[in-house]
Amino acid sequence: MPAANETTKRQLVEAAARRTLAAEDRVRKALPELDREGAAISFAAVADRARVSRAFLYAHGDFRAEIETLRGTQVSASPRLPVRQQAQIDWSHEQPIRTSSGLELPLFCFHMVLGPLP
Questions:
Q1: Mean of the pLDDT values across residues 87-108?
Q2: Which tens digit of pLDDT belongs to each residue from 29-73?
Q3: How far apart are CA 81 and CA 87, in angstroms?
Q4: Is the dihedral of CA 61, 67, 69, 72 positive or negative?
Q5: Residue 46 needs a FRET pair 20 to 30 A away by CA distance; which of 37, 61, 79, 115 works?
Q6: Terminal CA-CA length for the chain
Q7: Cα 107 from Cα 111, distance rounded (Å)
Q8: What is the pLDDT of residue 16?
Q9: What are the boundaries of each domain within the chain?
Q10: Nearest CA to 71 among 107, 41, 27, 111?
């Protein structure tokens, strides 16, 4: 009977490893999807999208670091551009906007405060 117990233990360990690998793959897919969509990046959002627990994300240092990095790039809760596109915006062609007090401000200042204009 000891051989049967060892086989069962080995099968359980292998099944757990397969579940962990599948969960890691789902997280690797969820992160770029959320970023590409411009969705808010948080541990809860990634956990929900990848169908894993937040504890799983915190326990995996590489996922934790990537989530914290992506989350740190977000300025506000307004819809945002994916990280890769943020640096590609060229505001140089925009004309400044004159405020009621006569102050001229570049248009990108309004975008930063108000979000994208309709």
A1: 59
A2: 999 999 888 888 999 999 999 999 999 999 998 999 999 888 877
A3: 10
A4: negative
A5: 115
A6: 71
A7: 7
A8: 87
A9: 2-76, 88-118
A10: 41
Residue 105, classed as helix, strand or coil, is: strand
Helices (H), 38-101: 43-50, 54-59, 61-72, 83-86
Q: Let me know: does 27 contact 52? Beta carbons within 8 Å.
A: yes
Residue 107 near residue 90 (C-beta atoms within 8 A): no
- In one-letter notation, the amino acid at residue 32 is P
For residue 105 the two structure tokens come to: 């401000």
* Its pTM surpasses 0.85: no
CA distance 99 to 102: 5
Cβ atoms of 77 and 40 closer than 8 Å: yes
Please give the Cα distance from 40 to 82 (Å, whole number).
Answer: 10
Q: How many helices (H) and strands (E) does the chain have?
A: 6, 2
Question: At residue 66, what is the residue type?
Answer: E
